[in-house]
Design brief:
The complex is a heterotrimer of chains A (about 450), B (about 425) and C (about 525). In chain A, about 25% of the residues lie in helices and about 20% in strands. Chain A is built from 14 helices and 16 strands. Classes of the chains: A alpha/beta (about 450), B alpha/beta (about 425), C alpha/beta (about 525). The interface between B and C is large, with 67 and 63 residues.
Chain lengths: ~450, ~425, ~525
């Protein structure tokens, strides 16, 4: 049933006229882009997998799914939508679809069924439900540009961005009202190891505790292309900066091995134990390659390449071979460094390099936080598949950061971060109607007016 | 004593100015001697390659050239069966040895020759690289003045100069000011012509009047003597019509129009060329182009148009990049194939640049440029640009005996320049 | 020999990048010499007498596209015939002269060329484009070869000094910016008050209008300036009143003197008589409100650039007949100190439009940003327009905001802005809805000549290449491994997209989701 719903997607679409086997619902096929020759077989595989998955996950669902009654004091919302883009592993697209939340989590995603009394019922018969977007490279937690980087020392594993957090600031309100719900707020790149960032939700009201997912959420490192040009940097060469990073990493590992407590290194230890991820600002082919060598090969960590700008795409295969996710942006194409004469669609190249969980970022406010979706649109414009780019702003960053089980897709049991759009979330003409974070309404165009 | 020996001595004495001066004088007098050059090959440039070539030189000029010409007994002969001889190199566009800074205004009458300080003797350094003629241009944007053609040997400006007023240099850019400067130049001539025409008209009227009066007077023979004298005075005052010389800054444009002077437009982009065509409009005069071949230059957009006009383009022997890319373009080749002529200048206006120029051109040959175009581009085309096509640039009877003696093909890396002859004198190397 | 405009035109058009196919036969490191620049047109030109060539009528037929004329009509599968740069006919089953150049727009859409009401100077003015300054060798010609850093401004200095327009004397008909403008679907723009047509390879007849606007200042921060402007308007309007009385004077008073022009600002008179439009830059509610009332009092229709808080006084601006040049993504925080609405809203364009204000749209960056942060420059004008629609601006008004309205602002709407018989043939052919984020301009036609063809320029040819056409691949010697992949991809794309045309009939539907679906499919197949 679910599978059928997927093929109901896009009525009037060119695909509908073709046979079922060739019904190339673009979204359905998009996640196997490199196997264009094997489309048919891969499609069959998808059918099989998705059938099994739905069967296995929820016993009896295929017969008669039921939504549990709300317990006393529990909150729940049921949204009937024209379309639900789940962005789950099976790329289920439900047209129409129902999504139900309960106590901050997603209770049900599927075709419309009966919803027990007590749930707040919302009819979005013309609108789409899309997962809240996840941006891993942001600086809007401070509410502006200030206070992002302590630039006295080059190595600051003891610092945390969380103290600069201004909850529910206007930039976060815009973020939420444009469909961004999860952010990794990090120190700037003027120093090599800027400190730890916090992972939080773009709540439009409430305090720090309400928004927080994790503090520290992960480490921010700037490998190249900024700390080296910083006026007060003691070392301006990449060799020197690399040496500093190696030293502190070795220190942390040695401290762990000897059981030594060091207040400066406690969080860095957690990076090297694999508990916390590390996001590394780098650019250019050599910068990206250096990053992979240090943070994947020499120090096996949960590391993510961030930016990868300019001609960094030239080593996309090397990054992919080493299984390192790329978090690309705010530049998503290159002309000057590559000198091929064409606008090199770098987002497309990275996303098709075969590396895991390619994602996009804004480096907000380099790109305004509320234009995160446009990073995906522009990448799609330059040749990427639009559904892949939707993944690149939702489930991919969530997984790359280790939160794929909580955010980034619309699946039962996950955080109820749901955005109701007027249409294709990548289209600048679409607007956001309603935003839920953890099942709580953050923005409602009907009540609040249009924020972005 | 042979000229060659004299010249050899002169080389030894080059650093000692006054000796060189004395020798120059003696060469001039001894120039009447006929000498013969017999080489394995001569690149004439104008009439192709001559194997087993014999060149007869008299009084600094080539008097005969041909294959295996008989040489009368007694004529001193330079016999080099393994060598190749070709015309001396010409760089038509140089600032070598000059240091003045230029402005951006219109000073068409300014002469680059006024900048030369001959006692520096810097030009002689270029002889060993085969350069026997240099076109020195005045500095500056706008219309900075006129170039001078020199021979790189001499202790006075007069000795150096081959031709002053070689060409008028004009920087033409895609902007109103630059185009206006050119238009104003010709407008100045129009104005001058108009004024002269009016003056002539007035003079003719006056003359007519005077003639009438004369006739009247001749009829009335018995007029008073005093009046007669007055009229005579008037007549004397009127006299013949004397055309007025145009002002300094107008004259060069008059000369452009009457063909006494040519223009060399320095442009940077394809757009500049379009604006040049627009600024020239209907005006007819001889002009050529100087285009610095920078990477990313978009000249390919107009190579066809330049070629159709059969213009000569002064360029460095340089491959460039297609804009925004690392794809190589051979613009000299593109220009040549479109029908344009090429005049090569060294990539760098330094002794190193002059030394390397023929090898840099060899790179272009490797990238497809025609060898004859390359040879012409180092000799006859720049000579023509300087207005010296009758005197230098090829091995032809009647032309100056500016010869480079090479151990082989000029574009081969192993080929040495063995000797250089300037107007019949050996100015570099040994020839016996 | 004088090169006239038509010879230039012939020379400029043919296949600027078509040497790729012949490159293999050349020495490995060089481009083929551009003898291929001489297309068939040129051979004809060579054979025939040039005079004849000039006299010959020049036809262009854009056939089979869905024509979005800009005046409300959409004609599916229609053709446009242009003669000597002017649209002669639009319709079905047109008679096409044999000698006409034919542009097959089947399956694609045809729109009027867009007009950028503001553009940074370097789009049209020639500047030195040498990005590579590392050429030590060349610097030994120090005086001669040095690049004039003020090249861009020279033209403007001239204008200021001489009071004349020099766009024609500084226009670069080959600049990369020009190609980018054409690739973005822009066919006209403004340079210092002069409306110009973006011609390629020629500089004749660029100017369409001059000084159609007068810039004026109106700000509460400068009360003296505001007062003096009011005085100028008062003086001019009383002069006009007197003049009109004098004009209609009875015969008995024929020898009365005309009213004195002394102290009367001619520009203000031109504004009051509708010959010119007054242009203000204003964003504050207070300024906008007083400006709207000022305009109503003196009965002129202001152009207001910025207009960020315009939505708060939209009714007054509407009554003033204002035209707003806005950037929908302009952001200004609400001032919490004020007890009223303030700041920016994405709905600004929509609200203004609802109240009768005409909307023209420009992006925040009126140049071309090739640095990789896409979507905010003139190259993405339709994206900026999309943001106005996000805030509720109707689609027709959105399209007008980059075509008809700018044309009116510049006094060139009799020539461009819509596709109609008798108007200039400035049009674009797109592979889908112009306002969809994946749509590319495939062809740009200026004055009835194809000035841009996506597949024949390096910039975007590799992105979803058109089927059955060779793609110019500039990188084959640059990075071997990368380019092999590209070649494979583009071959695959050619095979597949011919079956599943990206511009199927459904693509014409207004439904954005379908657009994106289709786009997704294309990109999936085409690779980069």
């Amino acid at each position: 049933m679910v599978v059928e719903a997927r093929f109901d997607f896009a009525p009037g679409d060119a695909g509908e006229k073709q046979s079922a086997g060739c019904s190339q619902s673009r979204f359905a096929l998009a996640f196997k882009p490199t196997l264009s020759a094997m489309k048919l077989s891969s499609l069959a595989l998808v059918l099989l997998v998705s059938c099994q998955a739905t069967g296995g996950d929820r016993d009896g669902l295929s017969e008669e799914p039921k939504i549990a009654e709300l317990a006393a004091g529990e909150q729940g919302v049921a949204m009937f939508c024209a379309r639900v883009l789940t962005v789950d592993d099976e790329d289920r697209i439900l047209s129409p679809g129902l999504i139900v939340t309960r106590g901050g989590k997603i209770e049900y995603v599927g075709p419309p069924i009966e919803v027990p009394a007590g749930y707040e019922r919302r009819d979005y018969k013309e609108l789409w439900a899309v997962p809240g977007m996840v941006d891993l490279h942001t600086h809007v937690h401070t509410g502006g540009w200030g206070d992002v980087n302590a630039a006295t020392n080059l190595i600051n594993p003891e610092l945390s961005a969380s103290v600069a957090m201004v909850p529910a600031n206007p930039l976060l309100q815009r973020a939420a009202s444009s469909g961004v719900t999860t952010l990794f707020g990090i120190p700037g790149s003027a120093t090599s190891m800027g400190g730890f960032g916090l992972l939080y939700k773009a709540r439009t009201s409430g305090g720090y505790e309400d928004s927080l997912i994790a503090d520290p959420g992960g480490l921010k490192v700037a490998q190249t292309h900024n700390p080296d040009r910083n006026g007060n940097a003691v070392m301006r060469s990449w060799a020197g900066l690399g040496w500093l990073l190696e030293q502190i990493n070795d220190d942390a590992i040695a401290a762990t091995e000897s059981g030594r407590f060091d207040p400066q290194l406690e969080n860095l230890k957690r990076v090297h134990s694999g508990e916390l991820p590390v996001l590394i600002h780098c650019a250019g082919a050599e910068g990206v390659a250096n990053t992979v060598r240090m943070w994947r090969i020499n120090y096996p960590t949960r590391s993510i390449v961030s930016h990868g700008s300019f001609d960094g795409w030239k080593v996309a295969d090397f990054v992919a071979e080493n299984g390192m996710p790329v978090n690309h942006g705010p530049r998503i194409s290159d002309y000057y460094s590559s000198r091929t004469g064409r606008v090199e669609p770098t987002a497309v190249i990275y996303s098709e390099s075969g590396g895991p969980n390619f994602s996009l970022n804004t480096d907000s406010q380099i790109v305004p936080q509320d234009e995160f979706f446009l990073q995906a649109s522009m990448s799609a414009r330059q040749g990427a598949d639009s559904y892949q780019m939707l993944r690149a702003v939702t489930i991919h960053p969530a997984r790359a950061f280790g939160y794929g089980d909580r955010v980034g897709s619309l699946e039962v049991g996950k955080d109820a971060d749901i955005v109701i759009w007027s249409g294709d979330p990548l289209d600048p003409r679409s607007y956001v109607e309603f935003v839920l974070i953890d099942g709580e309404a953050q923005y409602d165009k009907q009540l609040d007016g249009q924020w972005s | 004593m042979t000229v060659a020996l004299l010249a050899q001595q002169s080389m030894k004495a080059l650093s000692e100015t006054f000796v060189a001066l004395a020798l120059f004088a003696s060469v001039a007098t001894a120039g009447g001697d006929l000498i013969a050059v017999r080489v394995g090959r001569a690149e004439t440039v104008s009439q192709g390659t001559i194997e087993h070539a014999v060149i007869l030189i008299d009084n600094g000029k080539i008097v005969a050239i041909g294959q295996d010409l008989p040489i009368d007994r007694g004529i001193p002969t330079i016999d080099r069966p393994n060598w190749t001889v070709m015309p001396g190199f010409v760089n038509a566009y140089s600032r070598f040895g000059l240091t003045a800074q230029g402005g951006a205004g219109s000073e068409p009458h300014k002469l680059a020759s006024s900048e030369i300080y001959p006692r520096d003797a810097v030009f002689e350094d270029l002889l060993e690289y085969g350069y026997t003629t240099l076109g020195l241009y005045p500095p500056g944007n706008g219309i900075p003045g006129q170039a001078v053609a020199i021979r790189p040997v001499g202790d006075t400006i007069e000795e150096l100069i081959v031709r002053d007023n070689a060409y008028l240099k004009i920087r033409l850019a895609s902007n109103a000011g630059s185009k206006k400067m050119l238009r104003d130049g010709f407008a100045g001539v129009d104005k001058f012509d108009e004024k002269e025409a009016k003056r002539l008209e007035k003079w003719e009227k006056d003359k007519e009047k005077a003639d009438k009066k004369k006739k009247k007077k001749s009829k009335k023979d018995d007029d008073k003597d005093e009046e007669k004298e007055d009229d005579k005075k008037k007549e004397e005052e009127l006299g013949d019509f004397v055309p007025e010389a145009p002002k300094d800054n107008v004259l060069p444009f008059v000369q452009l129009r009457n063909g006494e002077l040519s223009a060399l437009f320095s442009i940077r982009t394809a757009s500049d060329f379009i604006h040049l065509i627009d600024a020239i409009d209907e005006e007819e005069f001889t002009w050529n182009l100087r285009v610095p071949l920078r990477d990313d230059i978009d000249l390919y957009e107009v190579t066809e148009r330049i070629g159709k006009l059969e213009k000569c383009v002064v360029v460095e022997p340089r491959l460039t990049f297609h804009p925004g890319t690392r794809r190589v373009r051979n613009l000299p080749l593109e220009l040549a194939e479109a029908g344009a002529k090429l005049a090569f200048i060294p990539r760098s206006d330094s002794t190193r640049g002059y030394r390397d120029c023929r090898f840099n051109i060899a790179e272009l040959l490797g990238a497809g440029l025609d060898r004859d175009v390359a040879l012409r581009g180092m000799t006859l085309e720049p000579a023509t640009l300087l207005g010296l096509e009758e005197r230098i640039g090829s091995l032809d009877e009647g032309k100056d005996a500016n010869l480079i003696f090479l151990s082989g093909d000029p574009f081969e890396g192993t080929t040495q320049i063995e000797a250089v002859m300037l107007e019949g004198r050996v100015v570099f190397g040994e020839l016996k | 020999m004088k090169l006239n405009s038509k010879t230039l035109l012939f020379l400029s058009l043919p296949l600027l990048f078509s040497f790729s196919s012949m490159a293999s036969s050349m020495a490995p490191l060089t481009f083929n010499a551009p003898r291929v620049l001489l297309g068939d047109d040129d051979k004809k030109g060579e054979d025939a007498d040039e005079e004849d060539d000039e006299d010959r009528d020049r036809y262009l037929a854009v056939i089979g596209g869905d024509v979005y004329s800009g005046n409300g009509s959409v004609m599916r599968g229609a053709s446009i015939l242009a003669k000597n740069g002017i649209i002669e006919e639009i319709g079905h089953d047109l008679w096409i002269p044999e000698e006409a150049e034919v542009l097959n727009a089947k399956g694609m859409r045809v729109y009027p060329g867009m007009i950028a009401v503001e553009a940074s100077p370097n789009i049209v003015v020639s500047t030195s484009r040498s990005a590579d300054e590392g050429l030590g060798d060349l610097h030994v010609h120090p005086v001669d070869e040095e690049i004039d850093p003020l090249a861009v401004f020279e033209a403007f200095a001239d204008e200021l000094l001489e009071g004349r327009h020099s766009v024609e004397d500084s226009y670069d008909p080959f600049s990369q910016s020009l190609v980018l403008a054409l690739s973005s679907g822009i066919t006209s723009t403004v340079s210092n008050g002069t409306a110009i047509k973006l011609k390629r390879g020629e500089i004749d007849d660029l100017v369409m209008s001059e000084n159609s606007q007068v810039s004026m200042a109106w700000s509460s921060k400068n009360p003296a300036g505001r007062r003096s402007l009011r005085e100028k308007f008062e003086a001019a309007s009383s002069y006009l009143r007197d003049y009109r009385v004098w004009e209609k004077r009875p015969k008995s008073e024929e020898d009365t003197k005309a009213p004195s022009e002394k102290g009367v600002d001619k520009n203000v008179v031109a504004v009051l008589t509708g010959q010119k439009r007054a242009r203000f830059t204003s964003n504050e509610q207070g300024d906008l409100l007083s400006l709207a009332r000022f305009a109503q009092q003196y009965e002129f229709r202001p152009i207001i650039v910025g207009c960020i808080e315009g939505w708060t006084v939209a009714d007054e601006l509407g009554r003033a007949g204002a035209t707003a040049i806005i950037t929908p993504r302009d952001r200004r925080d609400r001032n919490e100190m004020l007890n009223r609405e303030s700041g920016s809203t994405i709905e600004n364009a929509a609200i203004l439009y609802e109240h009768g204000v005409q909307i023209a749209i420009i992006p925040s960056n009126t140049g071309f940003d090739m640095g990789g942060q896409s979507g905010r420059d003139l190259m993405h004008l339709p994206i900026e327009v999309g943001f106005a629609m996000r805030g509720g601006l109707p689609e027709s008004a959105a399209l007008d905001s980059v075509t008809v309205v700018p044309a009116r602002l510049l006094g060139i709407s009799h020539r461009v802005g819509t596709l109609e018989e008798g108007k200039d043939c400035d049009l674009i052919v797109t592979d889908g809805d112009l306002l969809h984020y994946q749509t590319f301009v495939q062809y740009t036609v200026v004055d009835g000549s194809i000035a841009y063809d996506k597949q024949k320029e390096i910039f975007f040819a590799h992105i979803r290449p058109r089927a059955t056409e060779e793609v110019f691949d500039p990188g084959e010697e640059v990075a071997e491994d990368v380019d092999e992949a590209v070649v494979e991809d583009s071959e695959a794309a050619t095979d597949e997209s011919s079956e599943d045309s990206p511009t199927d009939e459904e693509g014409a539907d207004e439904d954005s989701e379908e657009e994106s679906d289709e786009g997704g499919d294309e990109s999936e197949e085409d690779g980069r």
